[in-house]
């Protein structure tokens, strides 16, 4: 099963191959969990969402058709569940708690950095997280799908159910907003780097 594409594995599961579900879990359990964690900032809630995604996958396996990438279909399920729960709870975040410090969009640490540089980079990481949290929800979601999960614009468009142009605009505006918020800090700390 390892060498099969996701879509082929899902079709095998649709045909009744139970081991195909194990393979899909192996491939997507962590990415779905981390996607939910970035949106909810709640480990238990994210675990529940990840389990519910795979429960829905099981319940709707007969409806699955290879119309696009499997990952797009699965992340769409996760997206819808996250939105549903966030609406119910009325709180929005993107980043994991402090106990998951190493799990972030950008790694600002490097073994070649001096302690002062590491401190500046940690400060930059905190500022980046706060800046992203301040983005409108759709911009945050589009940005995290693009930058963290490396999905292309078309996949993000399918997941968010927005046009391709809208997705590009959301990501562009998110990046501009982050640049505007972070540029003064970068110039002050690193002496005016061309961004």
Summarize the structure in words.
- The protein has 195 residues and is an all-alpha fold.
- The chain has two domains: 1-93, Rna Polymerase Sigma Factor, Chain: A (Orthogonal Bundle), CATH 1.10.1740; 104-195, Orthogonal Bundle (Arc Repressor Mutant, subunit A), CATH 1.10.10.10.
- The chain is 69% helix and 0% strand.
- It has eight helices and no strands.
- It has helices at residues 6-14, 18-40, 43-59, 70-89, 115-133, 137-147, 153-160, 164-190.
- Helix 2 runs antiparallel to helix 3, helix 3 packs across helix 4 (70-89) and helix 6 packs across helix 8 (164-190).
- The termini are far apart.
- Mean pLDDT is 80; it is low at 90-111.
Give the DSSP E fraction (strand runs of 2 or more residues).
Answer: under 5%
- Overall shape: it is elongated
Count of domain modules:
2
Span from first to last CA? 44 Å
Q: Structural class, judged by helices and strands?
A: mainly alpha
Give the number of helices: 8
